[in-house]
Amino acid sequence: MKQKADKHDPFAALRIREFTFFLSNRLFLTLAIQMQSVIVGWQIYDLTNDVLALGMIGLAEAIPFIIISFFSGHVADSFNRKHIILFFTTIYIGVGIFLLYSSADQSRFLNDYGTFPLYLAIGAVGVIRGFLGASLPAFMAQIVPRNLYANAATWNSTVWHLGSVIGPSVAGLIIAVSYSAAYTVDLIFLVIALFSMLFIASKPLPKSLESEPLVQRLTAGIRFVFKNQLLLGALSLDLFAVLFGGAVALLPAFSKEVLHAGASELGFLRAAPAIGAVIMALIIAYKPPTQNAGRNLFLSVAAFGVATIVFGLSTNFWLAWIALFFTGAFDNVSVVIRHTILQLATPDHMRGRVSAVNGIFIGSSNEIGAFESGVAARAIGIRPSIVFGGILTVLVVAITARVAPKLRKLNIDSMRDEGN
Fold it and tell me: Distance between CA 231 and CA 227 in Å, rounded?
């Protein structure tokens, strides 16, 4: 009987009813975010025909996201997390209604105000993401038991990547009908996400072990991360891998200038990392990378860098697709390990603030990484910038492995048992 009890159950977290509703919220929220990103990007380019206007989208969302994250973590640790999620999802629906209204009579409204209303909506989304990014991971930790954090992180990542594949595809198809139709479907997804959260009971807010002034509470998450070698090492690895090794931002130019491919091939390339991530997530569900988590984390990020280098050197479409597939697969290994470390190493009363710091490190790095990729490509060329980014990623792995020995030797199974 002991042997049977110890057998790994890849679907353990899915057997928790409230966690399935949490995943439903996560899926439809991701679908809506990804759809809205594609719709707004297409609409802004349609109005301006300016690639710089596209580049400004990332900054318009990243700047308010980073600023508000210093405050959102404190809010997530001070107020009911379910209510925060419901409130800001409702605000998100309001933003969607605003975008639908502004696009319903585009010739009058957007001609009068230009793209300013769209950038205003993007900035509002950055604020909303800041609060949701701090509250959702903290709330998830209250839904699943500690021994299932790794399994829950795997399914959470799987759902996010599914939304990242499906959302842009759906948006692309519906934009062909009209912007109004696309924003309407986006609103439907947001409403489903909102209702999914209603089926989860509110959880009592963990009590803080100490009474701190407001300024100290606002900076507690940053201080905690920088004092914790495991968290700082894991977050730094992911941050620099995305900043230096993120090749997705250059895909339109790479596809056209290097591979001489069209729009349909670009869509297939764009889906490759997410497909790799989903397949890897299913493998991880059956065989978690937790026993030698530190070693697996460094190997996966290094392999991500190598795959990025191969992509930058490729001139064949299928070689490029396979390289992107592996960037997504290896990245997902690091995502699952990092999220599990984040949950296990963080005290309950600080989850919101530490999740907010994670958001500053990771959540905005895609947008800033896209900006960095564009600058590097302008300076040294598309292919050299991608190869150089992959090399820098591997170097970051080597440096972090040297300065963070605790992370290198980490065994999540032992770490989980210590908390029980």
Answer: 9
